Amino acid sequence: MIQRRRKDPFTAGTGRLSLFLAGLAVTAVFLAAYVVNPRLPAQLNHKIYDALLTSAPLPKTADRITVAAIDEKSLKQFGQWPWPRYRMAHLVDNLFRSGAAVVAMDMVFAEPDRTSLSRIVREMGRDLGVSVRLENLPEAVLDNDRILAAALEKGRSVLGFGLVFDSETSTATCPGKTPIVPVLQEAKGLERRGSFHRASGAVCNIPVLARAAYSQGFFNIRPDSDGVLRRAPLVAEHDGSLYPGLALAALNAASPPQTLLIRKGARGVDSLIIDDRRIPLDETGDFLIRFRGPTGRIPYVSAADVLSGALPRGTLDDRIVFVGSTAAGLKDIHATPFDPVFAGVEVHAHILDNLLTGAFVHRPGWVRGAEALLLTTFGLVTAAIFVWIGPIFGTAFAAGGSLFLWMGAGWCLESRGIFLSPLYPLLALFTNFALLSAMKYHREEKKVRAKTRELSLVQEVTIETVANVAETRDPETGGHIKRTQHYVRALAVALSRRPKYKSILTGDFIEILFRSAPLHDLGKVGVPDAILLKPDRLTEDEFERMKLHTTYAYNIISAAEARLGNSSFLRTARELAHTHQEKWDGSGYPRGLKGEEIPLSGRLMAIADVYDALISRRPYKEPMSHEEAVRRIAQGRGSHFDPELVDVFLEIEAQFRQIARQFVDPD
Question: Which of 145, 149, 177, 225 reaches 20 to 30 Å from 409, CA-CA?
Answer without folding.
Answer: 225
